[in-house]
């Protein structure tokens, strides 16, 4: 006997009759739930962060003393190139996409991401790309040794490891494009009733801008590495001077991708800091609309500055002037953001839990990275700094103290919502201070090394650089151990600790936090916002 169901019955079943998520491995392989996929992204990115960190510690161990200690120079260069690629495409970018997957639907009142199956595919491309990237070490002649930038003509002469890297970059780039499309459509189409664009949380705004950046730049990188592939195997001469090509053209194409890419890795961190600072200042964010416009300005200007990476290639003075002034101009919207964060804290009712410590640490150390960026923006001085450890110091101040501190701030802020438990505050603070101090011990001396003329990507160096290299190496090992401490003392106990050792978080563990994500229970249920909330 069959019974007819009315559309209302079917609607009710659809709304409230969800099956529980499948258990075991299949839940994670086939999941289309934005929270599960966000968790997968975060696990993958932390794994790659550890792998890239091991490469970095191997580099620092080699540089502890002059002379060759452990590695041949060729293998040293393979480590340097792979460290950069693993950290950028394997650790930082997937971590921010993990945050986007988890938080954007919760913050805009959406039931899930717009394209759930595409979301699953865009994640599972990443482990394939990661295996290709790290597997290139086992290719004949080893991994590519042309640096993370893969400059021609070095990259056209490498062994098969270079091809592994090219395909890995293609696969990870495709994943980024799919993720970006998904994020844009979700934010534009799935906002809760009443949530206009100018009511979006800053994290969502920064990700919307970032997603447009990704769609614009990832095809450019794909074009650059495809031309490399053709030069290597199909007889073309895009970058070969002997065949009428130009190796400098590779630099132009690469950096047209590469400079906006820097902002892909920092804008979502700006969004996280713009959520954390008001929550722990117990004040609304100062200058909300100016923060939105500053983020958009940074994204637009980032397309006009690529050749500041190339001041030493022999470009005309007029080009140098244009790129110099355009680069300095980017400091203005970035300065607006720093000013607004400080103005938000001014006369606020501040408390210094771990998310706020990482946010303040971010503002302090990222600003230092920005100031050295201004020094590098000036063509006459950049000719002195170019290719030295000063550049290494600068971009680690921007990317480690920027992206990574932003990610840790966001993890400490939102993890109670993800797990339903509060992390151990004392251990969180220990992690912060270990990270903050060891980071500066590692990378600040590199400014001195660079100013004294120590070139980067060299396995050996002159004896006068020994002292600061030793300081940097000790700092690097402490920094690495601090992240192991975070994993075993903070993260794993939060997810898998005994109930009696953990404190329930409640819907909102932070009394100053605002936003839709704090209106749902902790941990956030598997299906949230089946009935869209109305934003007043």
UniProtKB/TrEMBL annotation:
Domain Cytochrome oxidase subunit I profile positions: 28-536
Subcellular location(s) per record: Cell membrane; Membrane
Keywords, alphabetical: Cell membrane, Copper, Electron transport, Heme, Iron, Membrane, Metal-binding, Respiratory chain, Translocase, Transmembrane, Transmembrane helix, Transport
Membrane topology: Multi-pass membrane protein
GO MF annotation list: cytochrome-c oxidase activity; heme binding; metal ion binding
CDD domains, per the entry: Cyt_c_Oxidase_I
Pathway(s): Energy metabolism; oxidative phosphorylation
UniProt biased composition (Basic and acidic residues): 8-18
EC number: 7.1.1.9
Catalytic activity: 4 Fe(II)-[cytochrome c] + O2 + 8 H(+)(in) = 4 Fe(III)-[cytochrome c] + 2 H2O + 4 H(+)(out)
Keyword Calcium attached: no
GO cellular component: plasma membrane; respiratory chain complex IV
Gene3D superfamilies: Cytochrome c oxidase-like, subunit I domain
Record-level GO BP terms: electron transport coupled proton transport; oxidative phosphorylation; respiratory electron transport chain
Membrane-crossing residue ranges in chain numbering: 40-61, 81-102, 123-146, 166-190, 202-230, 262-280, 292-311, 323-343, 355-377, 389-412, 432-454, 474-496
Disordered: annotated segments: 1-20
Protein family membership: Belongs to the heme-copper respiratory oxidase family.
Biological role stated in the UniProt entry: Cytochrome c oxidase is the component of the respiratory chain that catalyzes the reduction of oxygen to water. Subunits 1-3 form the functional core of the enzyme complex. CO I is the catalytic subunit of the enzyme. Electrons originating in cytochrome c are transferred via the copper A center of subunit 2 and heme A of subunit 1 to the bimetallic center formed by heme A3 and copper B.
Name used for this protein in its record: Cytochrome c oxidase subunit 1
Organism encoding this protein: Trinickia symbiotica
């Amino acid at each position: 006997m069959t019974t007819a169901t009315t559309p209302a019955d079917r609607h009710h079943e659809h709304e409230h009759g969800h099956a529980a998520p499948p258990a075991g491995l299949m839940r994670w392989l086939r999941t289309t739930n934005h929270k599960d996929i966000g968790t997968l992204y975060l696990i993958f990115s932390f794994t790659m962060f550890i792998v890239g960190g091991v490469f970095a510690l191997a580099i620092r161990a080699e540089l502890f003393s002059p002379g060759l200690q452990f590695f041949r120079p060729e293998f040293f260069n393979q480590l340097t190139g792979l460290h950069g690629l693993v950290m950028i495409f394997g650790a930082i970018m997937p971590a921010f996409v993990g945050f986007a997957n988890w938080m954007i639907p919760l913050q805009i009142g959406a039931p899930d991401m717009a394209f759930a199956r595409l979301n699953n595919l865009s994640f599972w491309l990443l482990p394939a790309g990661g295996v290709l990237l790290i597997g290139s070490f086992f290719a004949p002649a080893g991994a590519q040794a042309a640096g993370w930038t893969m400059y021609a003509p070095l990259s056209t002469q490498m062994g098969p490891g270079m091809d592994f890297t090219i395909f890995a970059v293609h696969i990870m780039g495709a994943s980024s494009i799919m993720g970006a499309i998904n994020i844009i459509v979700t934010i534009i189409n799935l906002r809760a009733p009443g949530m206009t664009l100018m009511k979006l949380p800053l994290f969502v705004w920064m990700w919307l801008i970032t997603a447009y950046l990704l769609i614009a730049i990832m095809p450019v990188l794909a074009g650059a590495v495809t031309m490399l592939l053709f030069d290597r195997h199909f007889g073309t001469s895009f970058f070969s001077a002997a065949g009428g090509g130009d190796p400098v053209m590779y630099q132009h194409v690469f950096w047209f991708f590469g400079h906006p890419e820097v902002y892909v890795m920092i804008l979502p961190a700006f969004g996280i800091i713009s959520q954390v600072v008001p929550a722990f200042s117990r004040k609304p964010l100062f200058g909300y609309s100016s923060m939105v416009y500053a983020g958009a300005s940074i994204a637009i200007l980032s397309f006009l500055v690529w050749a500041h990476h190339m001041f030493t290639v022999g470009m005309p003075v007029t080009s140098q002037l244009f790129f110099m002034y355009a680069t300095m101009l980017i400091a203005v919207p970035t300065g607006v953001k720093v000013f607004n964060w400080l103005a938000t804290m001014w006369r606020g009712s501040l408390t210094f839990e771990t998310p706020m410590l990482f946010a303040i640490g971010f503002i302090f150390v990222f600003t230092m990275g920005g100031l050295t960026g201004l020094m590098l923006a000036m063509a006459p001085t950049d000719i002195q700094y170019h290719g030295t450890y000063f550049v290494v110091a600068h971009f680690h101040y921007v990317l480690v103290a920027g992206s990574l501190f932003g990610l840790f701030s966001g993890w400490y802020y939102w993890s109670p919502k993800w797990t339903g438990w509060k992390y151990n505050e004392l251990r969180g603070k220990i992690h912060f201070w270990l990270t903050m101090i060891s980071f500066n011990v590692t990378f600040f001396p590199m400014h001195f090394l660079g100013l004294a003329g120590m070139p980067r990507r060299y396995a050996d160096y002159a004896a006068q650089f020994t002292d600061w290299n030793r300081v940097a190496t000790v700092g690097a090992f402490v920094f690495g151990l601090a992240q192991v401490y975070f994993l075993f003392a903070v993260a794993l106990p939060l997810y898998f600790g005994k109930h009696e050792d953990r404190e329930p978080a409640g819907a909102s563990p932070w009394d100053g936090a605002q936003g839709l994500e704090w209106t749902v229970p902790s941990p956030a249920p598997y299906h949230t916002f089946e009935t869209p909330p109305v934003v007043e």
